[in-house]
Amino acid sequence: MSEIETILSPDVPAPAGHYAQAVAYKDLVFVSGQLAPRPDGSHTAGEPFAVQARQALDNLLAVLAAAGCGPADVLKVTAYLVGAAHWPEFNGIYAEAFGPHRPARAVVPVPELHHGYLVEIEAVAVRRKAG
């Protein structure tokens, strides 16, 4: 029987609440919503949306890397944006991060996020077997 594995990246601030950065079960990895604090714990809240979106994606990719995954292993992304007006800018930054890979995705406008951030991103990925 497979166990649930907790994933923790040293390149992303540790969770402040009762959750894991990600968990893996068999070949699936579930990444919790990633906000945009920098690796040193300083906040990007209050900075332009593009800065926050890039940092949130960097955090997501760092957690995926700790799980042995990369952008091409992502199956599904859910992004929460404060205000639908950020959608076009997010779409461009997201495309830069994922390149030609196009995971399934939902972009959900929300009224606010924790700590005043403008974006939070979660994902489901697959660990591919070597060989």
From TrEMBL:
Gene Ontology CC terms: cytosol
InterPro entries xref list: RutC-like_sf (IPR035959), YjgF/YER057c/UK114 (IPR006175)
Domain of life: Bacteria
GO MF annotation, one: deaminase activity
Leader sequence residues: none
SUPFAM superfamilies: YjgF-like (SSF55298)
Alphabetical list of Gene3D superfamilies matching this protein: RutC-like
Family indicated by similarity: Belongs to the RutC family.
Protein name (record): Reactive intermediate/imine deaminase
